[in-house]
Amino acid sequence: MYLKSYLRGNALDTIKHLSNDEKSYELARVFLKEEYLDNDIVVEEHIRRLHELTSPPAKDFTALRSFFNTARTSVYELKAFGFDALQDDTLGSKIVSYMICQKLPTNFKSKLSTTLQTDFPSTRELLENYNTIIKSLMKTSTPAKQQEVKQVQEHQGAKPKPPRTRHPHGQHQLDESTSSSVKSTLQRFQTGTESVSKPTGSAASKPDSKFRACKLCAGSHSMLKCTVYTTPQSRIRRLKDLDLCTKCSGAHKIAECKAQSAGLTYPCTICSSKHHISAVCVVKTADHTQIQSGLRLMCNNLHKGQTVLLPSMSVIMQVNNGEICERVRCMIDFGSQASNISEDLAARLGFNSNSPTTEYNVKTCIGVKKQSYSSATCDVIFTPTATARHSFLVDPDMNLDYDIPGVKSLVHKLKTDGVRLADSFFNDITSDTIGDFDCLLGSDVIGALKPLRSVDLGLGTALEVQDGHILFGDIDSFYSGGSQEGVAEHEDSTDEHQEDRHDTSAPAGDDEADAGSRHRGNASY
Question: pTM for the full model?
Answer without folding.
Answer: 0.41
